Amino acid sequence: MDYLTLGRSGLRVSRACLGTMNFGTDPQAPTAEPEAARIIGEFLDQGHNFIDTADTYRGGTSEEVVGRAIAHRRAEVVLATKGAAPQGPGPNDRGLSRIHLTRALEASLRRLGTDHVDLYQCHVPDPQTPAEETMAALDDFVRSGKVRYLGCSNFTAAGIVSSQWAAERHHGAAFISLQANYSLIARAVETEILPTCQRHGLGVLAYSPLGSGLLAGRYQRGAAPDHGSRLAQWAAMPSPVARAFVAGLLAERHFDVADEVAAVAAELETDPATVALAWVASRPDITSVILGPRSAGQLAANLTGLATSLPQAILERLDAATRFTVTPPVTGQHHGA
Questions:
Q1: Which residues does the annotation mark as catalytic?
Q2: Is the separation of the CB atoms in 209 and 289 below 8 Å?
């Protein structure tokens, strides 16, 4: 098994990270608890050790499902969760303030059924809260033993720098990781964010490596997303940001990239998802790739794709075809694959 050190730390994580946004107990959850437990068991049985969830996934039931599935194997797991997303209607029920993060962490620990998480991440930036307050609160979590390491998600380069400087000024724990939307159709982070992570000691966890399914061929040019699909759900949301995300993702230039991926897959006698995952895994700045399988079969296919090595000529061809692709707007939610 291939393990890498996460950022400027001693934490060793598998190249594959299991994203659990699909897991839950609500009737609309794409993956019900029995199948989720099977996926988690097979993932760990193969030697992978990194599992990521969040307090906002499936109304918190993703954390509950994960917690029950790993209860008897807790020591094998590098368990990551996230806080910041709204947890209620009140003004202090969201964001990166000390009051909200403290409540959010305690609630996550209860749902996960554990006394600590290995990686606690700020899910989204909070421009209303000073970085000093956020980093001081997070450092207190580490000193209390409830959190082992700290990370962030969807932060800008400036946000990363501000946070790392705030931690340094107060001699506290700093971020060791960033979750970033990264795929053949989302490469904007290469300009500033990935170099900033390298300078400031953050490993990078790539989420949505399949471009929310577009690179796997789940959506067709000029056609509305199938009813019940993730994109159909987002398109139906009242949030204009969510609808803008869907429109940006389904841009013509992204279908051009998907066509190129499909052409490469045909030449290599494999499937488009394998090509897309293998490309992300080949990138030197990426520590771990977050997979979001809905079934054990999808997990097996995704792990095969992640372990596939593409010929150098193919890597260069894909790089040239997608280098200037711009990522769609971030919705404020983490997307598994």
A1: 57
A2: yes
pLDDT single digits (tens) 191-217: 999 999 999 999 999 999 999 999 998
- Count Cβ atoms within 10 A of the Cβ of residue 93 and give its class: 0-12 exposed, 13-18 middle, 19 or more buried: middle
pTM of the shown model: 0.93
What are the beta bridge partners of residue 128?
none
Question: pLDDT by residue (tens digit) across 13-37?
Answer: 999 999 999 999 999 899 999 999 9
Q: Are 91 and 98 in contact (CB under 8 A)?
A: no
**Residue 120 phi, psi (nearest 5):** -110, 125
SS3 35: helix
Our CA dihedral for 224, 278, 274, 228, rounded to 10 degrees, sits at -30
Is residue 91 included in any domain, yes or no?
yes
241: in domain:
no
**What CATH number should be reported for the domain holding residue 81?**
3.20.20.100
Give tens-digit pLDDT for 146-160.
999 999 999 999 999
Report yes or no on 245 lying in a domain: no
Please check whether residue 335 lies inside any domain of the structure: no
Q: Which residues contact 305 (CB under 8 A, 6 or more apart)?
A: 271, 273, 274, 275, 276, 277, 278
Radius of gyration in angstroms for the set of CA atoms belonging to the chain, rounded to a whole number: 19
- Which domain does 184 fall in, by range? 3-216+271-322
